[in-house]
Amino acid sequence: VNVEEVIAKANEYYESNASEWEFSQMFGEEDDPSSDSDTTGAEDNWISSLAFDSTGRFLAVGYNCGQVVVLTQQEDQTYQLYTEFKSHDSEFDFLTSMEIEEKINQIKWFPYDSCIPALLTTNDKTIKLFKMLEKEGAEGGTEVVVKPKKVFEGAHAYNINSVSFNSDGETFISTDDLRINLWNLDITTEAFGIVDIKPENMDELSEVITSSCFHPKSCNLFVYSTSKGMIRMADLRNSALCDRYAKEFEDTESDIGGFFQELVTTISDVKFSPDGNFIVSRDYLTMKIWDPRVENKPLRVVKFHDHLVPKLCDLYENDSIFDKFECSWNGNSYRLLTGSYNNNFYICDAFGSHVTPMCAVKPTAQKPFAHPNQHLEASQKVLHTAWHPTQDIIALGAKDFGYLYVRKTENDPK
After folding, report:
1. pLDDT digits (tens, 9 = 90+) for 354-368
2. DSSP string, 362-409
3. Which of 61, 69, 145, 151 has the highest count of CB atoms within 10 angstroms of its CB?
């Protein structure tokens, strides 16, 4: 890949496709204002995962309460309820004497051509594969039936943080703090451990795995990120056990030192671009775009949280510094999306300098982008993001509400 050519094509795209966005719709149930918004009951309705399918027809929304709501795109480009189902229930782990939450940590749609839409959901310990079928109802209408087809469990001692389908259409990986397992979709009873960073003596543990992602086209390549701010690329052709990685990406030029350095450099999300040529990583203060051929520095660093640096002590005390922000590529690998506090979110040109700051709010309470110098509302945050695979439609998850925004076009009647 010629990076200069990519940047030139990207700039042509930016010139002809201005990054101007408008509110489309919102969904979700509002908390009862009379109750304390931080109570467990209110948090059950908070969004914990968002995912478009490979066509963009469906948008799946996972919640802390284990519920999954599937929306389907209408002719006017809005999304309406298609079906909903309970994916996970809370369980009790008698070995560790701990409750396993029903919270949906991640949703991934089966990305390849299939007559029947299928999606993978996971909580901390159990991964499930569901299929959606349309059947004729008793009164002639169409009824959507969701069937659990497979349950993948018993392979993770630590909490699962991510799952990713392989481009071979047969396997997927699941990742927890210390291990990455490779599963075959047809075999639920066993998984193959391909990365294991657990030391013999747990006192020597210096990092954990935070996220992982398969390459969209090369079935042998995957990346995983760590709490030390490193991204490691592994190649399944080199060896079955990928403890020795093929490449390691690290940005050694940190603006933050001392106690907070590792906390703010912890990578919360890592993704290949849809074309497979670049990697994006999101940490607490920045988003970084990487050229896989250059390991010692990112191609571009997008800084949008510099105003938080003087407030790191407060953010540490209220645990906000541990928030895990997601990021998303658009379908042609030219733009990126990520969230922030005060319900702000940012749409960034991946290979340019332009950043579009916006605020996710109800249209009736339209407020401008909350400038960084304003009061920080750490409880109002856009953690979860998703970008339609072929259209300029973005989905945002902020507590109990989801927001959809669309890019304005010249022929837009609005």
Report:
1. 999 999 987 776 566
2. -GGG------TTS---TTSB--EEEE-SSSSEEEEEETTEEEEEEE--
3. 61
pLDDT of residue 413: 45
State how far Cα 25 lies from the chain centre.
21
CB 71, CB 61: distance < 8 Å: yes
Q: How confident is the model at residue 129 (pLDDT cuts 50, 70, 90)?
A: very high
Dig out the tokens for 308 from the structure: 């938080």
> Which amino acid type is present at position 330?
N
Tens digit of each residue's pLDDT (9 = 90 or more) over 101-110? 899 999 999 9
State the amino acid at position 178 in one-letter form: L
Alpha-carbon distance of 125 to 100, in angstroms, equals 7
What are the CA-CA distances from residue 328 to residues 132, 140, 274 (Å)? 25, 40, 10
Q: How far are the Cα atoms of 29, 241, 270 from residue 33, in angstroms, in the given order?
A: 12, 52, 36
Task: Describe the strand order of the beta sheet including 118-122 as a list of residue ranges.
Answer: 106-109, 118-122, 127-136, 142-152
Produce one character per residue of 133-143: b if its CB has 16 or more CB atoms within 10 Å, e if not.
Answer: eeeeeeeeeee
Gap between the Cα atoms of 109 and 132, Å rounded: 11
Residue 156 to residue 174: CA distance in whole angstroms: 9
Task: Give residue 75's pLDDT.
Answer: 92
The Cα angle at residue 210 between residues 398 and 334, in degrees rounded to 5:
65
Residue with tokens 């059947």: 135
What are the backbone angles phi and psi of residue 180, rounded to the nearest 5°? -120, 125
- Interatomic CA distance for residues 186 and 156, integer angstroms: 18
Which positions ≥6 away from 267 have C-beta within 8 Å? Answer: 210, 211, 225, 226, 227, 229, 230, 231, 281, 282, 283
Give the whole-angstrom CA distance, residue 312 versus residue 303.
16
pLDDT for res 379: 87
Q: Is the pLDDT of residue 347 over 60?
A: yes
- Give me the amino acid identity at 353: S
Rounded CA-CA distance 176/54 in Å is: 25
Residue 270 has pLDDT above 50, yes or no: yes
Q: Which of 137, 80, 87, 135 is nearest to 107 (CA)?
A: 87
pLDDT at residue 414 above 50? no
| Distance (Å, whole) CA 105 – CA 177 | 13
Quickly count: other Cβ atoms within 10 Å of residue 102's Cβ: 21
Residue pair 121/139 in contact (Cβ under 8 Å)? The answer is no
